[in-house]
Amino acid sequence: MKEKIEFWFDFGSTYSYPAVMRIPMLARRHEIEFVYKPFLLGSIFKKQGWNTSPFLLNLSKGKYMWRDLERICAEEEISFNKPSAFPRNGLLASRIVCSFENENWIDPFIRSVFRENFANDQDISSSLVIAQILRELNLQPDEIFLKAELLETKEKLKLQTERAFDCGIFGAPTFRIGNELFWGNDRLESAIKWSNKV
């Protein structure tokens, strides 16, 4: 039996965008299940001594990253529009995923949030943007927001972020199979191959 692949991501992570958009097709092709694990990448950066994204700390690296992401999305035929603000805060969306992780609408919700950020240049920290995504999925935003704001939900995301750090995760996207880590969109296929071996 194939191992499930944990997909650790942050909604503001650039390379998580093409990864999350490629997962459905690859999951079907290889008959493998992905488990979505949102975490707060900013908290991980702080533990590494950074106060923001390394793509902002190193301007040359940031310039390369945007061009690289543009090429990747073009090659994969994924819509892309460089966000006018970076990184955007995906806290609300992450809490929603943590709170409703077993619902069948979570997969399309996650991809819609990423699409709004990296294709439509919408502010995903806005409850109005998230509410619109939920309505498009025929859901009631107010009920979902209430659960997402519960103390237990906030604590769950906090603990999940701490677990990411304890597992050795330092960036996003990261794919985890057992104790094996695969970092980056370009390691997605490697993670799938590994899952077939264990």
UniProtKB/TrEMBL annotation:
Listed InterPro entries: DSBA-like_thioredoxin_dom, GST_Kappa/NadH, HCCAis_GSTk, NahD-like, Thioredoxin-like_sf
Entry-linked SUPFAM superfamilies: Thioredoxin-like
Domain DSBA-like thioredoxin: 5-189
GO biological process: glutathione metabolic process; naphthalene catabolic process
Location of the active site: 13 (nucleophile)
E.C. no: 5.99.1.4
Gene Ontology MF terms in the entry: 2-hydroxychromene-2-carboxylate isomerase activity; glutathione peroxidase activity; glutathione transferase activity
Family stated for the protein in its record: Belongs to the GST superfamily. NadH family.
PANTHER family: GLUTATHIONE S-TRANSFERASE KAPPA, GLUTATHIONE S-TRANSFERASE KAPPA 1
Name listed for the protein in its UniProt record: 2-hydroxychromene-2-carboxylate isomerase
Taxonomic lineage: Bacteria, Pseudomonadati, Spirochaetota, Spirochaetia, Leptospirales
